[in-house]
Design a protein that fits this description.
Structural class: alpha/beta
CATH superfamily: HUPs
Distance between the termini: 36 Å
CATH topology: Rossmann fold
Helix content: 25-40%
Mean pLDDT: 90
Order of helices and strands: EEEHEHEHEHHEEHH
Radius of gyration: 18 Å
Strand order of the largest sheet: 5-4-3-6-7-8
Shape: globular
Number of strands: 8
CATH architecture: 3-Layer(aba) Sandwich
Low-confidence stretches: 1-14
Largest sheet: 6 strands, parallel
CATH class: Alpha Beta
Number of helices: 7
Bound molecules: adenosine-5'-triphosphate, magnesium ion
Strand content: 15-25%
Length: 213
C-alpha cells in the first residue's frame, strides 16, 4: 500500500470527486543503486509535490545487456529495496520483472496506467538518458503519451530531442554513476557515502562486482 492513498470526497449530490495521485516513474538498471539516484528521486518528488516516486527496476536493460554482464534483476531489485528502506515516498517497483526478456518504458507506462487509473505518471530521467529518447522503443508512441521530468547530470549532453514533453527539474549535481561504482567495488576501493550502507552490505555478502564474479 502507498502512504498517500487516493482521497474520495463525496459532495452534496453524492458524486465522488476523486483526487488523482501523481507518481514519478524512475526507471533504471540500478546496478547498483547510489546516492545520485536517491537524490534525484527525492528532489523531483519534493520540488513537484509528487505523492511518490517509484524506482522501476529494468528486467533486461536491452541497451546494455549486449555488451556487459548485468547483475540478475532479482538481485538488483533487492539492492533497490535495501537502498530505499525507510525513505519516505520512495518505493521500488518490480512490474518489469513480471515478463521475461527486455522491458520497454512504453509497455511499462501502459501497464501501470491500466492498473492504476487514478494515477498520473511522470517519467523521471537523467539528462544523459533524455538526450537519447529518440532511440527508445516505439519512440513515436512514447513521445505522444509520455510526460517526462528531466534532471541535470554532470557531463551529460545539454541538447534535448525536439517534440517531447520535457520538464526540467534542477537537482544538486552529483557526479556518481553505477559504472564507476562497479569499478570501485572491483578494485576494493571505498564507496562509503556514495552507496547506502545496506546496499554495500549486500554487495559484500554476495561478492558481486569483484573481478571474475
Ligand atoms: P550505469 O553507469 O550503469 O549506466 P547509472 O549511474 O547511469 O548506471 P542507471 O541505472 O543507468 O544509473 O540510471 C537510471 C536513471 O538515473 C537514468 O535516467 C540516469 O540518467 C539517472 N541517473 C543516474 N545517476 C545520476 C546522477 N548522478 N545524476 C542524475 N541522474 C542520474
Ligand atoms: Mg546509466
Amino acid at each position: 500500500m502507498t502512504h498517500n492513498q487516493t482521497q474520495a470526497n463525496h459532495g452534496a449530490e453524492g458524486v465522488a470527486d476523486v483526487t488523482r495521485r501523481r507518481i514519478g516513474l524512475f526507471g533504471g538498471t540500478f546496478d547498483p543503486p547510489h546516492l545520485g539516484h536517491l537524490v534525484v528521486a527525492d528532489q523531483v518528488r519534493s520540488e513537484l509535490g509528487l505523492d511518490e516516486c517509484w524506482f522501476v527496476v529494468a528486467n533486461d536493460p536491452w541497451q546494455k545487456s549486449g555488451w556487459r554482464t548485468v547483475t540478475p534483476a532479482a538481485q538488483r531489485l533487492e539492492l533497490v529495496e535495501a537502498a530505499l528502506s525507510g525513505a519516505d515516498g520512495l518505493r521500488s517497483c518490480d512490474v518489469e520483472l513480471e515478463e521475461e526478456g527486455p522491458s520497454y518504458t512504453i509497455d511499462t507506462l501502459t501497464t501501470l496506467q491500466d492498473r492504476f487509473p487514478d494515477v498520473d505518471w511522470l517519467i523521471v530521467i537523467g539528462q544523459d538518458a533524455a538526450s537519447r529518447l529518440d532511440t527508445w522503443e516505439r519512440a513515436d508512441r512514447l513521445r505522444s503519451v509520455g510526460e517526462f521530468i528531466v534532471v541535470n547530470r554532470p557531463g551529460a549532453p545539454s541538447a534535448m530531442p525536439p517534440g517531447w514533453r520535457l520538464q526540467r527539474v534542477d537537482v544538486p549535481p552529483l557526479d556518481i554513476s553505477s559504472t564507476d561504482l562497479r569499478t570501485r567495488f572491483g578494485a576494493g576501493r571505498s564507496v562509503r557515502f556514495l552507496v547506502p550502507d545496506p546496499v554495500i552490505d549486500l554487495v559484500d555478502r554476495w561478492g558481486i562486482y569483484r573481478p571474475g564474479s
